[in-house]
Amino acid sequence: MNDSPVVRIEASGGVGHITLNRPERRNALHHDMFPPIKDALSTWSKDDSIGCIVLTGAGKGFCSGGDVRDGRRGRRGGASPSVHQAVSALGDDAEVALMLHESPKIVLAAVNGAAVGAGMSLALACDLRIMAASARLIPGWRRLAFSGDFGGAWFLTRMLGSSRALEVLIGDIEISSDEALAWGLANKVVPDNSFADAWREWAAELAQGPAVAHALMKANVRDAMAMPLDSFLPKETERQVLSSRTADHKEAVRAWLEAMPGRDGQDR
Fold first, then answer.
1. Measured distance CA(210)–CA(223) in Å, rounded
2. What does the pLDDT look like over 116-156, one tens digit per residue?
């Protein structure tokens, strides 16, 4: 894996770190960010030593969305890309949201500051979100007469319902950290001065958990959003049996039995 001047890619203690690194532009998206991020997500998805992936931003902002001044894709020879070319380029970049969402690892967004437009989409693409108290989620598209990208409408609709999601989008409603927590868009909100320690502690805790069980739980939740119960139950049942065959399960049962003297347990 290779990082670049605009994104830092690191791994330590079972946690993969992706840090958007354009603090002078509030970490506005740049096309050089996407290949290293995709490479890291692909590599870590198959790495048993990684139990959690964190996406965050350098400096005071999480991500201010697409860089309107520079553009996500520079023009070549002064010519504007065709609609087809622009759709292809933006779609290629937006695959990062899909990879975050579908990664078998638990992906945590450490939202240290404003997450705007596609930056908000990337935060919502993660499984869990911890926000600094001063952080905000801001759609931002309407003020530039954009319709939205990187899955923002898809994630908002599933989390808030269609009516509130549309209200947020067309009203360009800025969502505070406390509102995000109340609406289910954030899992935790912590004071700014303890934010860095808080997200690192949570990431370390997640990384030490049963990785296979976590991946199967994530798959269960994803399928529950799309399947009727009669289709979901066989999937859930199969995953329960698969998780019972893991070393993590066997060790957890052994530790439980040791801690509960006099009680019988039965391994599947």
1. 20
2. 999 999 999 999 999 999 999 999 999 999 999 999 999 99
Both tokens of residue 145? 């007469």
pTM (two decimals)? 0.92
Asked if residue 164 is part of any domain, the answer here is yes
Q: To which H or E segment does residue 51 belong?
A: none
Q: Which residue has the tokens 């994530």?
A: 218
Domain assignment present for residue 264? The answer is: no
Sign of CA dihedral 191, 197, 199, 202: negative
Total number of domains in the chain: 2
pLDDT in tens, 174-229: 999 999 999 999 999 999 999 999 999 999 999 999 999 999 999 999 999 999 99
The token duo for 77 is: 């020879």
Three-class DSSP category at 163: helix
- Sequential DSSP letters for 166-235: HHHHHHT--EEHHHHHHHTS-SEEE-GGGHHHHHHHHHHHHHTS-HHHHHHHHHHHHHHTTS-HHHHHHH
> For residue 242, what are the domain limits?
211-259
- Residue 20 near residue 63, CB atoms below 8 Å: yes
Same domain, 133 and 198: yes
